[in-house]
Amino acid sequence: MQRYRHYGVSYTSSSPSSAPVQEVHAEEVYTEDEVYEEEEPLIEEGVQAVAQETEGVNEEEVPRTEEEGTPAVCETEAKTLPVESKNGKRTEGGGGGGGDAGAGPKYSMFTWFVVLALLGVWSSVAVVYFDIVDYDSVIARAKEFHMNFSEVLQGKLTAYDADGDGDFDVEDAKVLLGLKVSERPDVGDSPEEKTVLKPEESSEHVAETPSRPAAEPTESTSPETPTEETESAAVPLPPLVEDDFVPDDPRDSVDPYEDEPDTIDATGVLVKEPPPEESVESTVEAEQQSGPPADPEPQAQTTIPEAEGTTEKQPEEKLREKAKKKKPKLLNKFDKTIKAEIDAAEKLRKKGKVEEALRAFESLVQQYPQSPRARYGKAQAEDNLSEKLRSNDMLQRAIDSYREAAELPDVTSDLLKAALKRRAERQQFLGRMRGSLATLQRLVQIFPEDISLKNDLGVAHLLLGDNKGAKKVYEEVLAVAPSDGFAKVHYGFILKSQNKIAESIPYLKEGLESGEPGTDDGRFYFHLGDALQRVGDDSAYHWYERGHQRGHFASVWQRSLYNVDGLKAQPWWTPKETGYTDLVKMLERNWRTIRDEALAVMDRNTGMFVPEEENLREKGEWGQYTLWQQGRKVGNSCQGVPKTCALLERYPEATGCKRGQIKFSVMQPGTHVWPHTGPTNCRLRMHLGLVIPKQGCRIRCTDQTREWEEGKVLIFDDSFEHEVWQEADSYRLIFIVDVWHPELTQHQRQTLSPI
Known about the structure:
The protein is α+β, with helices and mostly antiparallel strands. Helices cover 52% and strands 9% of the residues.
């Protein structure tokens, strides 16, 4: 900014240098003597080379030219006598010869032109080379002046608004010229009187009120309603739809770095809601609002005229809502005064120069500690830098800076929402679920009408395992927004987890059918299909097929959600196909030893067999005794079966399988396990038969059903749908060993997350 002011001063001080040029042109018409007298010092001092060109002129002719100069000026039509030049040619007029007096104007004008041209060239070079001018600031101020001037001019011309559309346009000019009859309603009518006289326009008036600029002096004194144009269509397109956002800060429209939601990105950013009007408008607009508040839009939508124009209003509203989401108002009054500096720092961040951007924003925060936008930019730069450095400490700094930005006075509602929302997301990333929950609870208190924030709050409860709290949140959302698809699928998911199968189906189905953001998730297709299967509805496979088409499932049968692409997929495997023949042979050779240890544990303490807790049973009893889980031993469980554990220690493909288990499974008669799939395709499952009744025990994987045998191993991929029946007269006991999928590399086995 200092450079810009310095350049302005230097430019002003040098501008008078152009005045002599104008004087020379002006006086050339009147007398050649005066011009010669003014230019003679210049010729003597700096243009001797030019003067040498005239040495061939006869000096005797000079007095003659001077004498004839006066009559030539007095009588403009008189013809100057011919003059013989150095090369012997004769020229007409005083411009080409006649001694020093005649040559003065010609060469002095050329000299001035050369001098000024050189000055201009070297000045331009100096400006560019030494970077004297901050062109970004100049352009920003010029655009600001242009926009502000346009607003002021439009505000003045609003007094001549003849058709009531809020601005001065061609139609208004026609009325002033008498080419068209004014359609402007009577200024004396009050809004109440118009509502009584034209009830069919009441809802349209309410719908258009929020789209007008917040502070228009002419509108506050002369309220207007739509006229014949409004009556011809259910919902007319306002003259300037985007003006909803311009009056507050014209410069926002020219700033390419204010589109944040960024950033929010987000993934969790304002998923679907039409934001309430007050959340989009900035603090400045709220202060400038002069007229009485308009009736809420939901009331207008219930009127008959609005119902008639629903098909036309919806696309228009969607466009407005989309524009509002694109242009969050992050600048308060003070931030607008330092917008150029903020933009320069933000430009660095957008280009990926996060270290430089962080230094720039830190400097702004030190210089302007009361600026919410500068502190928010600092938080974003720290956030980006934490990802680049993979630093949790830097991420914690960003989380603290987001909070500081939200707590500053005069923060705009959009910046407050963006800062706290991003803070909650980053807290979740660090695993600080309770902190994230507290941040979202504060957001919901500040913006109680924002449905998306309540939906995010419900997810935070689910991440904490608080299904009860999440259920309460989604019940509140569905009470005010019964068609909200995001709330429906999550509410159905909660009901399903509570084993309320039939109740969960309509919520899951309607939520998926809504197609709203956040609903296209494989888990919802998975649980809807599972619920339909449990009530005997064959349409489950229709939803599985849809999930497969959406890319959530590898196939209708293979519906695991945590997968590695490209692995061989088949329901049943042979020991040779797995490559784990040594492990299979060891299990089958030692099956009696493994069985005896398992029976001893069952006889001593049946409590070591924990009931299945995944809600997979339709009926019956199913207990499990786990030795390894997620690649680690479970407590002191191996103390009860030491020989079994010793046998397995030599096979890391089993004991090191972070996505599997090693356990005993006992199932009592009369048990049925629902059709289900495992969570991942990264493992294969081995079943070693220990105690198998002669009849009544079977397992189905896809469309193939098999039975266990004592001392034999069955191998299948449990990411495919499988189902179990125990219809024998006594219990069934097997030993389950999960192993890595044979096509996984050693690096993948080491880096895959546990399940």
